[in-house]
């Protein structure tokens, strides 16, 4: 088995040697801040990936592995890479397992002075794991589900229309014809599996179509012809399957004569952007926050006041990974009465909501704790409302918010009772809302 | 069964017993013994740890003084090395087990016990991260001044053990100036408090100054479990002056004239031509002037004082500089400072097939010799064929050198080792030291004799008195021949 691993991408070794182990990535990794032991630090993940792949390929530098004092490795050569040589598959399997406990949020790579793409290394290890038979049930089920039903939920794909009930004052053609369009031209709203199939997330597309309707923006939906964007498959390394279904979506969009695809899910946005880059198709990909910002900037609508102190949580796939930071902020700032307080950390340094990298499935308790930590940062801003632009962030954060006590004082230290001037208030009950939902509720009748 | 195989089996059994005992003593959840975890504790930031893999037998993560005492007492009784560790950002191989033993990761024990704003003090556990402490203090308009580049990850315990400092050492000094008292678990397992049991004073000259003995002791004299720090009010104003010079010698001359004018800036940083080239290659849009040296002065204090001092520094710099800019506006200050803040990345990116390394990175020389040091290092770089990027805290003579090489190339690695040795010897020749703030650890121990002469014997006898069995962080800071031979006899 170990020999096959040697066929893994050379970039692991290439960047492994660049890591200076400065630990900068320790300070920003949400998972590490929870575990706090080195084995969960991003630099350790890089170290292990590098060590494993190097030992498969045969290193040019003699790594001198000195044995612990109490273990006299008198019979091993001084250059022996003792652990990997003795139990390579054991270390490898454990490293694979550990890399499942990661949000794939990319925070670790943001300020790495050596430019190590830590998150890509972890993703590559995950893919390698799957390629070597890891997580067979999940892989088989997901792959089969998407192949058969074309969505991650496993429902009849025609159910993608269900969220439209009661909200269909616009003409939408199940045959996927473009409705009369005004601005932007030839827009397809790619709703994504979660928003179209999970009732809890219906609010997002429902808000969006009402806003577009009231501002006269024509658009088309692919409905049952919209397939999963492929993101969940590519996370598992099923790249060719992902490409295949993404190709279907692209074909449908091009077939409609559309020139713009709008997504509300940041992961769909990320995937579409890469798809367009790869294929060179003449399609502009936008995120709904950009359209909303365009609408308010154009003063196409009048927004009624909303007296609330709010903050904005950057979804990792939208912010750090796609560079969209300002449009949602500008939308919020343009709502009269809304006081916008920036959260720390934010933008490229924003902390993941806890729902990235499929962590919610792998370790729900950890995911919840990380969401609580993000809520605590939101609460520090004095905001009562946390706005986001991702159905997954909204779900993770609101689930955690529901379970929190209204207010809580943390004892300041370990030896003294908390003093009044040192009380830290952690999340009061915070409301989590989607940005389209907010805009809709501020939309005055024309 | 061969003797070697039998020995190996025996040691596996001993290690299993050690792990079981530790679990019984402090709880299973605080003991890490899985190979995958041990591997992750086999390094710090040093180049030496990149070339070698220093595996501990076991890692413990204590969360109380009792935990620490139990482990140390056990280790003392069984003569097992104990290696205290903070965040492992040290660049000297200080926090790794050179020859096995128990690595004690104190970074999990990270409570700020108290901010005593009325007395301008803070009481913390060793694992508190530097930046986190300053976030707590900021609520009281206070700050802990030593500011290492590793602020976001290094621990206060590690800072105390290494006597760390940073950019602002010119004005604010190093960690030792702020440590008022410590709780230390000695190598025998006994707990002592330095700086006076129960004392809350800033001034205290009663007794021998044991606090100073433990600050900078790099974990060889005991485990620091609590730290009482003096903290200062946060300055309200800040300004940056940037000055570029076409002649390297003009840089220290300007620094001296600023001092003579009675101005003590918070920090004075230098980028020599190697650093300027690196920054311009990485971020051409910053358009650093093609100069021999750039100085960055930071002044802080009252807004009015900052205005006056900044203007005065700019005036002095103009006498010899080819370009001077001075700002107090936050955005522009960030712009001016950017050249310094991207330096680490710029150095790392100089070679697409290589990286910068942490070795020979911290020499300290008298101010009057800084240019000799910079020129000397550049000459050595040519001699050994290893590219370097030089920058540093010129205000206190601390020169940081970043050798850039391909760590895969055995030839380059060998040349780098020679270069690093030559840089260290250059520092000693220039009446300096091999390390200004990062410490000795295992990587600079070979220069101890040369640097300290007869004083080394006194250091050794202190070490032997406090740690008669030589269990505490062996192989670091000072060579202990006596202890080494006794360890060999076991
Ligand atoms: C990018 C980068 C920038 C840096 N910039 C600076 C800088 O500007 N200035 C500077 O001075 N240093 C700097 N350093 C070096 C390093 O960060 C400091 O020396 C820091 O204080 C080490 O803290 P740590 O928690 O990582 O300690 P570790 O590296 O874990 O340990 C350092 C030493 O302290 C001992 N130790 C740790 N905790 C304890 C304890 N509780 N009791 C007893 N001994 C203990 C260890 O045994 C070891 O010998 C930098 C390092 C990096 C990677
Ligand atoms: S920040 Fe980059 S160089 Fe530093 S330890 Fe992490 S991966 Fe390595
Ligand atoms: S991707 Fe996020 S969770 Fe994963 S190692 Fe990096 S910072 Fe940590």
Description:
The complex is a heterodimer of chains A (446) and B (490). With 446 residues, chain A is of the alpha/beta class. Chain A has three domains: 9-131, Fumarate Reductase Iron-sulfur Protein, Chain B, domain 2; 156-294, Rossmann fold, CATH 3.40.50; 302-442, 3-Layer(aba) Sandwich (Rossmann fold). Helix content of chain A is 43%, strand content 9%. Chain A is built from 20 helices and eleven strands. Chain A has helices at residues 2-5, 11-16, 30-35, 42-57, 82-86, 88-100, 107-110, 118-131, 136-149, 193-197, 203-214, 231-235, 239-255, 266-279, 288-297, 326-333, 359-362, 364-380, 391-402, 435-442, and strands spanning 64-66, 187-190, 220-221, 260-263, 284-287, 308-312, 338-340, 385-388, 408-410, 424-426, 431-434. In chain A, helix 4 packs antiparallel against helix 6. Mean pLDDT of chain A is 83; it is low at 1-7, 58-87, 169-182 and 408-426. With 490 residues, chain B is of the alpha+beta class. Chain B has five domains: 3-105, Uridine Diphospho-n-acetylenolpyruvylglucosamine Reductase, domain 2, CATH 3.30.43; 112-233, Uridine Diphospho-n-acetylenolpyruvylglucosamine Reductase, domain 3; 237-345, 2-Layer Sandwich (Alpha-Beta Plaits); 351-429, 2-Layer Sandwich (Alpha-Beta Plaits); 454-488, no CATH class. Helices cover 39% and strands 19% of the residues of chain B. Chain B has 18 helices and 20 strands. Chain B has helices spanning 3-26, 35-40, 47-51, 65-78, 130-138, 156-162, 169-172, 210-214, 250-260, 273-282, 303-318, 330-341, 343-348, 370-384, 410-429, 448-452, 455-466, 481-489, and strands spanning 31-32, 52-54, 58-60, 82-85, 102-105, 112-116, 121-124, 142-143, 179-185, 191-193, 223-230, 232-233, 237-245, 267-272, 293-301, 323-327, 355-356, 363-364, 387-393, 398-405. In chain B, the strands form four sheets. In chain B, strands 13, 14, 15, 16, 17, 18, 19 and 20 form an eight-stranded antiparallel beta sheet that branches. In chain B, strand 19 (387-393) and strand 20 form a beta hairpin. The longest helix of chain B is centred in the N-terminal third of the chain and has 24 residues, at 3-26. In chain B, 56% of the residues are buried. The model of chain B is unreliable at 482-490 (pLDDT under 50). The chains are: A alpha/beta (446), B alpha+beta (490). At the A-B interface, helix 4, strand 1 and helix 6 of A face helix 1, helix 2, helix 3, strand 2 and strand 6 of B. The structure holds flavin-adenine dinucleotide and iron/sulfur cluster (2 copies). One iron/sulfur cluster binds next to helix 4 of chain A.
